[in-house]
Amino acid sequence: MKKIILFFKNHPILKHLIFIGLVFVALVWIVLHGLDIYTRHGESVTVPDVKRMQAEDAKALFSRYRLRSEVIDSVYVDNIPRGAVVEQIPRENSSVKENRIVFLTINSNLPRKVTVPDVRDMSYRQAVAILEGIGLSQPEIEYVASEYKDLVLDVVYNGVSVEKGLKLPVSSRLKLFVGNGTAEIIEDSIIMSEDSVGEEWME
Fold it and tell me: Does this UniProt record's set of keywords contain Transmembrane (predicted)?
């Protein structure tokens, strides 16, 4: 031991180099060990399925899995409870690191509203396509006497004619009054009957 101490006393530079090397190794170990703890290297959890759960209940469940959640958007889906989770990212059964944020889309408490376009004087097929294209339910069709077959004559909601620019919930169901193409035929039949009566009277 005395020889070692004497050696380092006679070679101070070497002593300092060895000391620096030991400090460097210790620092590297501390950094790597700390990084491993920070990133939870090798530790992961499976994301649970929280669809149709209320956002607060989903948050509590994620907490038990050492995960976090954040609501980032809302949509309106008619057959899902209000405030319930509609979509989650990452998806259920995904393997993620602990403390990961799961982003949630929830069902809105109020249905989204849309501006009803004016589909009068269009063919009913075109009108239906336009209305469904903006998210409205398939409208009810009622045929009425008109010489214009399959032409939309009026658009009604709850018994009232819809004005252009009216905003309605997407869950609303409109009623279209569509021509059946029979008015002209009926009118012609009446005229022919009147002519026949006139001819008989002249005789």
Answer: yes
